[in-house]
Design a protein that fits this description.
One of its GO terms (molecular function) is hydrolase activity, acting on ester bonds. With 429 residues, this protein is α/β, with parallel strands linked by helices. Helix content is 34%, strand content 10%.
Length: 429
């Protein structure tokens, strides 16, 4: 299979093109110049040359100390960077290598091609053909791709952010699933609370004093999720019905809210919490829960009941975040509407460039939606399409880089983050 990856294009908001907006770790983002006023340019009549220079020097001192006559050069032309770092928690929608590094599976398919083929040209541990929403957000704010926590090396500069997300992670503790007798289907035990413990362990390497941490986290974006989808997936895939899934929503929302609140206690003042995607449009649900009844599907071919469930989870999550925000007025808690952002290209795929559709997976082992549980993407019997950018769905469970790019754009440029994310110095193109 011959495939030419798409080139990364980013454009400065100010109109200047830039091939790689992400500064190297530890590299200053911009330099400020100064225009110095020369004494030769100050005219004072009717005095001797020596006296004139003395008077001019006195005027310069007065001007500098009183009004600040040094003019910054380039501050308007240089892009403004609202975030100095990003810290991410979540599951396979944002894992950049932690699952691979954990060794949870001996031969995980996400550790080899076709995963990673579109952009990186090799597998990175991302559950997609290329970049994720988190990667596009980092690019837009001029930050490097976040290194996975479990792959950090001694002495590595981590001050521009770290990723704690793990593919397969849940909001609830692993013990909950073992008590429910479905623990053996878990991909990982590295739940959201485990990821939080990693952050707490790393925190002394990020800042030492309370004042230092306050300044640093004031310019940091924390992302909690998407998380919770696997809590429902594991139960649904072993036979739980919608009613049983609904009973878990308060527990999942409470777990997400608890970790978000603990991050506030650690000093976070800007936190983005995404909701769940429209799972009724995913190839895995369309395959496993296929119905002979046309009334079970909406106009886009998605399963109504599962999308309604995702919306219910999102509604409860938003209500919990509103309460948390009310109790912490000094903190910006941003709800990221993944559902609304993704529903657009499930409704009108061709409008977003998905000429091959949005329901059928690019990589899979056949079937109406190219999802075969016995021949999943990367396994024997599966095959990847030649043009992933024309598909919204990558492997039946996760989306393509192209789909994630549209979601990221809609979060940064609007209107699917509430309140809006801060303006980014670079556009996603």
């Amino acid at each position: 299979m011959a495939y030419i990856p798409e080139k990364k294009k980013l454009e400065s908001v100010q109109g200047k093109s830039k091939k790689d907006p992400s500064p190297k770790v530890g590299q200053p983002r911009m330099k400020m110049g100064w225009t110095i006023i020369s004494v030769e340019h100050i005219h004072i009549p009717s005095v001797g040359r020596g006296t004139m220079k003395i008077l001019a020097l006195i005027l310069l001192i007065i001007c500098f100390t009183t009004f600040g006559c040094f003019e910054k050069v380039g501050s308007k032309a240089s892009p403004y960077y609202p975030y100095e770092a990003i810290f991410n928690f979540g599951d396979s929608l944002s894992d950049t290598g932690n699952f691979l590094a954990s060794g949870a599976l001996a031969f995980p398919v996400i550790g080899s091609l076709p995963y990673g083929q579109t952009f990186f040209r090799h597998a990175t541990g991302r559950c997609s053909d290329g970049r994720l929403i988190l990667d596009f957000i980092a690019e837009a704010y001029g930050l490097p791709y976040l290194p996975p926590y479990l792959k950090l090396s001694k002495g590595q500069n981590i001050h521009q952010g770290v990723n704690f997300a793990v593919a397969g992670a849940t909001a609830l503790e692993a013990e909950f699933f073992y008590q429910s007798r479905i623990g053996k289907v878990l991909w990982t035990k590295d739940s959201l609370s485990v990821q939080l413990s990693w952050f707490k362990k790393l925190k002394p390497s990020l800042c030492t004093t309370a004042q230092d941490c306050e300044r640093y986290f004031k310019k940091s974006l924390f992302v909690v999720g998407e998380i919770g989808g696997n809590d429902y997936n594991y139960a649904a895939f072993v036979g739980a019905n919608i009613t049983q899934l609904l009973a878990n929503v308060p527990l999942v929302v409470a777990a997400i809210t608890k970790v978000t609140n603990e991050l506030i206690g650690e000093g976070a003042v800007e936190i983005m919490v995404p909701g769940n995607l429209p799972v009724g449009c995913s190839a895995v649900y369309l395959t496993l829960f296929r119905s002979p009844k046309t009334e079970d599907y909406d106009q886009n071919g998605c399963l109504k009941h599962f999308n309604a469930f995702a919306q219910y989870h999102n509604k409860q999550l938003k209500l919990a975040l509103d309460t948390l925000s009310h109790n912490n007025p000094h903190v910006r808690i941003i709800y990221a509407d993944y559902y609304g952002a993704a529903k657009r290209f499930f409704h009108a795929p061709r409008h977003f460039g998905f000429s091959s559709g949005s329901l059928k997976a690019c990589c899979g082992g056949g079937g109406p939606f190219n999802f075969n549980n016995s021949a999943r993407c990367g396994h024997i019997g599966s095959k990847a399409c030649t043009s992933p950018s024309t598909y919204a769905n990558w492997d039946g469970i996760h989306l393509t880089e192209a789909a994630y790019k549209h979601i990221a754009k809609s979060l940064i440029q609007g209107p699917f983050s509430h309140p809006p994310l801060r303006s980014s110095p670079f556009n996603i193109t």
